[in-house]
Amino acid sequence: MPDKIPTPGSPVRGSKTGKPIMALFDLLGRSWALGVIWQLSNGPKTFRDLQAACEGVSPTVLNRRLKELKASAIVAHDGNGYHLTDTGMALFSLLQPLGPWAIEWAKTLEERDTLPDA
Question: For 19-48, b where at least 16 C-beta lie within 10 A, e where not — what string?
Fold first, then answer.
């Protein structure tokens, strides 16, 4: 049975009452949800372009994620393909700083792993 789309006010992973932040985390924690948002931040993409940008995500998973993100008002589809809505762009603006942070974090882990054991 397919998972229900996480919505505030309904039970979601981590919250029986569906607190909005937990509904968002449930949605974003699904495979490829963040990848789709990240890829669409650069502008509209067709389904095929989005699938290629997401490193070959299966069509089934991509279709499911796009359906969920559209139902959540984060993604829309028009004649130019899939794109982030204003709500989706606002969400991406909050996620975007995690990119540089993740690069620094990776360097920290890499440096730690190259140090000899004390």
Answer: eeebbbebbbebebbbbbbbbbbeebbeee
Distance of alpha carbon 64 from alpha carbon 38, whole angstroms: 17
Determine the distance from the C-alpha atom of residue 115 to the mean position of all C-alpha atoms in its chain, rounded to a whole number. 34
Q: Is 19 left (phi over 0), alpha (psi -120 to 50) or beta?
A: beta
Q: Write the pLDDT tens digit of every residue in 55-114.
A: 989 999 999 999 999 999 999 999 889 999 999 999 999 999 999 999 999 999 998 888
Residue 101: Cβ within 10 Å count? 9
Integer Cα distance of 5 and 105 in angstroms: 31
